[in-house]
Amino acid sequence: MRKKIVAGNWKMNKNFQEGVELAMSIQQRLNNYDGNCLVVLIPPFVHITKIRELIHHPKIKVGGQNCHDKPSGAYTGEVSAEMLNSAGADYVIIGHSERRQYYGETNQLCYAKINQALDNKLIPIYCVGETLEERKMNLTFRVIEQQMREGVLGLDGEDFKNIVIAYEPVWAIGTGLNATKEQAQEVHAFIRQQIENQYSREIAQDTTILYGGSCKPTNAVELFSQPDVDGGLIGGASLNTDDFVNIILANQ
Ligand code: PGA
Q1: Would you kindly state where each structural domain of the chain is located, as residue ranges?
Q2: Which ligand 1 atom lies nearest to the CA of residue 215?
């Protein structure tokens, strides 16, 4: 059985004290939670060690929002996968559309970052998704196929078993306009088929594929009830304890 996951991508929000407070209040609210959804808190880098130290809940993990594609060296301002691992992170987001859009990250760079993450025992959450223009031009499947092929499907099957995929249509991120459950299911099934074609049915069936883009308590149940949607990567709604916890509870 594949893992169900709800991950909160805080992006560049919450100062240190606010971040610690948010993590603590989520942990507190999940005190009696014994459902089967794994929760990943993904704060800014500087919060990770402290939050990891304060989390004692077996279902809550911590992740980073990005890592560098090289192991170490003269790359001022960057953070390596090994640093994340040694600071207590278990997961790392790779190829978020904001990284692709604002920092020019390519599928090839994502592939190098994924390899760094895996070499350092981090589980990559690899993000794919089409822009509005691409969807309008009926290029959605072509774009996703290329992001998958160039970004992650070059791994061998054993490594791929440690990958989480997030489908995040760029037009849905932070816009309040989520994909419909049919749109999400269609793309998730397509992604799973790509994985099956490259590896095996078993590996495809075991891969967790998250939906991201304006996921909220009000649409989480219908999105997560789709057969190929295994949870969510949550931006805005992960900054509020009630909203985030309600999204977690929606992932049965
Ligand atoms: P959103 O962001 O939930 O605020 O749309 C999702 C994401 O960027 O991961």
Answers
A1: 4-250
A2: 3
Q: What is the CA radius of gyration of the chain?
A: 17
Q: Is 96 a catalytic residue?
A: yes
Residues 6+ apart with CB under 8 A from 32: none
pLDDT of residue 57: 96
Q: Measured in angstroms, how far is the CA atom of residue 28 from the centroid of ligand 1? A: 24
Task: Report the pLDDT value the prediction gives residue 105, as an integer from 0 to 100.
Answer: 98
168 is catalytic: yes
Cα(118) to centroid(ligand 1), Å: 24
For ligand 1, residues with CB inside 6 Å are 9, 168, 173-174, 212-215, 233-237
Phi, psi of 123 (to 5 degrees): -95, 115
Q: What per-residue confidence (pLDDT) applies to 2? A: 95
Query: CA–CA separation, 213 vs 14, rounded Å?
Result: 20
- Residue 61 to residue 38: CA distance in whole angstroms: 8
Question: Which residues of the chain have a pLDDT value below 50?
Answer: none
CATH for the 4-250 domain, from 3.30.1490.20, 1.10.3720.10, 3.50.50.60, 3.20.20.70: 3.20.20.70
Report the C-alpha gap between 42 and 65 in whole angstroms.
6
